[in-house]
Amino acid sequence: MEVQRELSEIIRREIKDPRIHPMTSVVAVQVTPDLKYCKAYISVLGNEEEGKNTIAGLRSGEGYIRRELARRVNLRNTPEISFILDQSIEHGVHMSHLIDEVTKDLRDDE
Asked: Of residues 97 and 70, which shows the higher confidence score?
C-alpha cells in the first residue's frame, strides 16, 4: 500500500529523533475506510526499551509525519496515526533460536 511505503520513507529518511532506532520498519498499515484513522505496526530490531523509545519518538513526531504523508499521498483526509509496536518478527527470531538449540541438543545426543 502506498501509505505504508511513504510512512516507511518518512520514518527512515526524514525523522531525526534520536529515540528512533535505526533498524525500524513499518510492518503493516491498516487505514479505516473513511481514511480518518491509521494503525501503523512498527518493528524494531533491538531490545524492549529501544522499541518503547522508538514508539515514543514516533508519537512525538506524529504531526510532522501526518503533514509529510498528506504532502506525498493524495488522500481526502490525512489519517490520525497510531503507532503500535509489533514484536512478531522478534518473537519469530527468538522461536527460531530456541528450535535451533533443541535440534542442536538432539544432534549432539546421537
From this structure: 70
